[in-house]
Every structure is written in C-alpha cells, then in structure tokens.
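ARCHIVE CARD
Drawer: 12
Card no.: 0347
Subject: one protein chain, sequence and derived structure
Cross-reference: see card 0346
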Amino acid sequence: LRECSIQHSIVGVRSRLEYGVELKDTMMMGADYYQTEAEIASLLAHGRVPIGVGQNTKIRNCIIDKNAKIGRDVIITNKDGVEEADRPHEGFYIRSGITVILKNATIKHGLVI
C-alpha cells in the first residue's frame, strides 16, 4: 500500500496498491504470489500491467478476484448504473450493479467501467 485511500473495503493477502489508489466499498481478494520489483518494472517498461492496482486508479462498489491486473488511471465506478453486463473478454461482469473483475483478468491502463 502506497499513499492510498481505502474506505469500507477488504484488501486480501499479497495485494499491491500503487500511489493514489482509491478503494471504496470494494473487496479485493489478493494474489497467489508476489511479483518482484524487477518483474513489475519490466512489465511496466513493456506497457504491460502487473498484478494489483496501478497508480491513480479509482474503484468503487467492486469485487476483484485473485491475481487481477488493473492498470494505472483506471476508473471502475459504474457511473451509468448498469445492473447487468457480460464482458468476459474485457475481464469483468456487472451483477446487480456491482462490478466483478475476473480471476487473472487484465484491465488495461486508462479504461473506464
């Protein structure tokens, strides 16, 4: 955890949250393993997303399954109030208005859900 805001949320074991992350009403299940700082730096240098939540990402009313990779500057708030959506190819579902990030999913940098 690095300078994050976490309200009414659960953060699981081996979770990685970068600077400026905001979690509210969210359950993050964590990860099965750690990535080293060198692995994370290499992934970021190649434009890929490491396990955890990237810088300045805002997440509300969400369930994040294990080993999810959420990029920087992502917004997951379901601001349009969608009740049901199936987007497994994008790494998420929405059920009863709650966004569910799938196990091992990758949410690319800058995506808005």
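Annotation on reverse: DSSP finds one helix and eleven strands in the chain. The CA atoms of residues 39 and 45 lie 10 Å apart.
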